[in-house]
Amino acid sequence: MDMQRIPARDGDYNLKNYDKMRDSFSWDEVKKNFSWNETGKVNIAYEAIDRHAENPDKKDKVALLYSSPDREEQLTFDDLSKKSNQFANVLKKYNVKKGDRVFLFLPRSPEFYASFFGILKTGAVAGPLFEAFMEQAVRDRLQDSEARMLITTPELLERVPQEDLPDLENIVLVGDHNESSDKYIDYHKEMSDASTDFDIEWVDLEDGMVIHYTSGSTGKPKGVYHVHNAMVQHYATAEWVIDLKEDDVYWCTADPGWVTGTSYGVFAPWLHGVTNVIRGGRFSPDDWYGTLDKHNVTVWYTAPTALRKLVSAGEDVVKKYDLSSLRHIMSVGEPLNPEVITWGLKAFDLRIHDTWWMTETGAMLIVNFPSEEIRPGSMGKPIPGVDAAIVDNEGNELPPNQMGNLAIKKGWPSMMRHIWKRPEKFQSYFINEWYVSGDSAYKDEDGYFWFQGRLDDVINTSGERVGPFEVESKLIEHPAVSEAGVIGKPDPERGEIIKAFITLNEGYEDTPELLEDIRKFVKTGLSAHSAPRELEVKDSIPKTRSGKIMRRLLKSWELGLPTGDTSTLEE
Ligand code: WTA
C-alpha cells in the first residue's frame, strides 16, 4: 500500500532541518535550557512550575485551563506554585520523605495537578492511577509499590482495599467525608492551614520522579520507574515535535494515569511555560470539538481511537465548531490509520502527526515532524539523539524493509531506570546495547519506521495496554470459571477488543446471563477497559505441556488462521 505522501507545509517550525539537527546533535545543548545546568539544583517541579512563577512576565499567565461539564477553573503558574507548595507542606507534616511512593487516585481536576507537583517538591515519587481502576487494579499497584500515602476522593475510597495495604499510612481525602480516624487527612482543611512557601527538596537527575504501572504478557502489572532526568527529553520533544511556542494553547487528551498524560499532559507543556488545557469528563465528539473551539486550542495531542470515533461521527459535527485556531495535531498509542490522516486533511485541513513511544521509554522516540514529509502508515523517524533499528533475536541489525524487533540504542534521557523491585524483568528488555520494544516493525530505505504489530500477547484496546494474564486471573476468581485464555481481536474502532475463552466449573451452564455476570465481574473488580467484550465457553483451553496458555493458538482459531507449530500442545 503506497499511499500518497504528504509533504510538509511551509511554517515557522521550531525544528527546521531534521537531518542537520540529527548530524550535529548533543543532549548537552538541550540541558542549557534548565536552571540546574547552572545552579546544580534539580527538581522537575521547579523547572515546570516555580521557575515561571518567579518570572514577573510569566507568573500570572494561565498554566492550567481546567474545564469539565460541571466545573471551570484557571490556575496561573503562580497559583500552581503556591498550591503545590501548600500540598508539599501537608505531605511533609505527615513525614513524607524523598523516595517515598505517594499515589494519586483522583479524577482529572485542579487538585490532581497541585498534589502531583506537591509530591514532586518533597522529592517523593508520584504514582498516578487511572480513576477507572477497580479494587484489584488498585491493590496490585499500591501493594507492589509499597505506597505510604494515597490521595483520593471519598467516592473512590471504597475501591481501596486498605486491609491489604499495610504500608499505606495515610490517605488524603479530597471532598466531603465522615472519616474520623487519624489515618485520613482532609485535603481542603490541611491546604487552608498550610503555608504557600516551601523549601523544595533538591534531588539528583537520577532520582525517582514517577512510577507508571503497565502491562506485559505475563505477571502482574509492572512499575516503570522514571527519574527527573526525563525532563531533558520532554523538553526537547515538546520543542521539535509538538512545536510549542509561547502563545500556544495546548491540549493533550490523555489521562495522567497513563504515561502520555504525565510526560505530555503535564511536563512537556509546562517545562515550556505554555497554557495547558485539561478537560475532565468523558469523551463525546461534541464535547471534544467544543473544547477545541471554546479554548481556541492551537496544538492538540490525541489518540487514534478517539480520532476514529470522530471520523465515525462524520463531518457535519466538525462543521458546527470553529476550529480555526488549531494549527498542529499529533497522535500516539496505536497505529494511526492512513484513512484517519486523509480524513484529517479534509476535516481540519491539517496533517495528523503520528508519534511512537512506550511507558518504558518515557517520551517520544519515533515521530513525524511538522517540517518533514508524512508517509501515511509510518510512525516516522527517530528524534535527534536517538538511534532506532530493526534487530533480530540476537540483537543484530537487519537491513531495510526486513521485519524484526523494533529496538532503541540504550541511553536516551527519558528511558525507565528500573522496574520496581523486579531487576530481572528490567534486564529482560535488553539485548546487548539494545532496548527491545516488543513491537515488530521495519524501516524503509529512507529511514521511516513502519509498525507491524506486537510480538507478545499484550493487547492494545482503544490505546490502552492490557495484559492478558491480569484479565485471566480475574476471570478465574469468578465461581463459574475454571480456566481462561484471553486474546486481542482486531476491531475497526478500538484497534483490538478483548476476547476471553473460558471453561466452566461443574454445575454452571453457558447462558447469556452467566456470561454477562462474568463480564461485569471483571469490569467492577479490575477495570472497565479490561473487561472482555466477547466471552466464549470452551470444553478446554489449549495449554503447553508446561501449562502455559497458548494464546496464539486461540487467536489463530478465532481469526481462522493456520495454527502453526502446535508440537508443544498438551495432550
Ligand atoms: C503501541 C503509550 C503503533 C505499541 C505512549 C507500543 C503504537 C505500545 C504507537 C506502548 C504508534 C504506541 N503506532 N503502535 N504510533 N504508539 N503504540 O506503554 O505497541 O501505553 O509498544 O505507551 O503502544 O503503549 P504504552
TrEMBL record:
Pfam families: AMP-binding (PF00501), AMP-binding_C (PF13193). SUPFAM superfamilies: Acetyl-CoA synthetase-like. This is acetate--CoA ligase. NCBIfam families: PRK04319.1. Its EC number is 6.2.1.1. Residues 470-548 form the AMP-binding enzyme C-terminal domain. It comes from the Bacteria. The gene is acsA. GO terms for molecular function: acetate-CoA ligase activity.
